[in-house]
Design goal:
Helix content is 30%, strand content 21%. By secondary structure, the protein is an alpha+beta fold. It has 2 domains: 37-146 and 273-295, HupH hydrogenase expression protein, C-terminal domain (Ribosomal Protein S8, Chain: A, domain 1, 2-Layer Sandwich); 147-272, Ribosomal Protein S8, Chain: A, domain 1. A 10-stranded antiparallel sheet has the order 1-5-4-3-2-7-8-9-10-6, with helices on both faces. Helix 2 packs across helix 3 (88-98).
Length: 295
């Protein structure tokens, strides 16, 4: 029997493995790369106690900021806090304590005024506003609120009024879907009311060609205000020459566009500090003040 078995020709039988993951995939899944970093609140870099000797002006500025936050939270107006008269060392200490937060703004020069740079501090809703006059003189102040007044004011000044109809010229060859989107934006502008939620057109989900995007940019125009918000990835917000219309583009941490949209609103919410942000900021600043007084 064993001799017979030894003499038999062996026939190879393929072994087939079945189950999830056992078979080759013809089409590989291409997952979107999501952001991997997020900016969060970092405590201020506090000066050493001996550094505060003789710098009562810094304590005065911080006290003014706390009172302005309290006024805003109670529904009262808060005037800007000028830093023009601070000495260089006092200004350096203010810079150290306030730091730089998530949102920065650039406003292009216009007649009678130079460029404006706005930087949110690490205390949300506490904004540093640096303006340059046409003659080169620089003015430095702190403003309290959702966003400094210069941002919506400049956006409106550099755009047509909300009652001015959106002029859409005849689309050139290659432009297919942009006219219908521009019509939706025009309808949203006519229906918009101050303070209402944004009307968002998500361009990422729409079948738009580069010609469509270029035509929309041409019709809407580019305004004087550019906002960069650094949170979960980056968000670049640009005013247009069409009143109450903003371009809002989100990037992941690899600078790949993950959301491209148009918002019809006074100022996009992603750039603004909320009321709860102001409440957090006033509490944190009170802690800073208590530490500095104790030292």
């Amino acid at each position: 029997m064993s001799e017979q078995r030894a003499g038999l020709r062996q026939i190879p039988i393929p072994v087939v493995v079945v189950g999830p993951g056992s078979q080759p995939e013809e089409d590989t899944l291409d997952y979107m790369v999501m952001p991997r970093g997020m900016d969060t609140y970092v405590p201020p870099s506090m000066p050493e106690p001996e550094q505060m000797a003789g710098h009562e002006a810094v304590l005065g500025v911080l006290g003014d900021i706390v009172r302005a936050l309290e006024a805003r939270l109670s529904g009262q107006p808060a005037a800007p806090i000028s830093l023009d008269d601070l000495h260089a060392e006092d200004r350096a200490l203010v810079n150290q304590i306030l730091g730089e937060g998530e949102v920065g703004v650039q406003v292009a020069p216009e007649a009678g005024r130079g460029a404006v740079r706005v930087q949110e501090s690490i205390f949300a809703g506490v904004w540093r506003v640096v303006r340059a006059d046409a003659d080169g003189r620089v003015h430095d102040c702190v403003e309290i609120g959702a966003i400094p007044a210069i941002v919506p004011e400049s956006a409106r000044a550099g755009a047509s009024g909300p009652d001015v109809a959106l002029d859409v010229p005849e689309a050139p060859p290659g432009v297919m879907n942009a006219p219908s989107i521009l019509s939706e934006i025009a309808d949203a502008r006519r229906a918009a009311q101050p303070g209402q939620d944004a009307h968002v057109v998500n361009l990422t989900l729409l079948p738009l060609s580069p010609d469509d995007i270029g035509f929309m940019d041409h019709v809407l125009g580019t305004g004087p205000v550019t906002i960069l918000s650094r949170g979960y990835g980056n968000c670049r917000i640009t005013s247009t020459r069409t009143g109450n219309v903003w371009r809002v583009v989100y990037y992941n941490s690899q600078d790949v566009v993950i959301l491209n949209s148009v918002e019809v609103v006074d100022v996009p919410e992603v750039a603004c500090a909320a009321e709860e942000d102001l409440r957090d900021s006033v509490e944190r600043l009170r802690e800073v003040m208590a530490w500095m007084h104790a030292s």
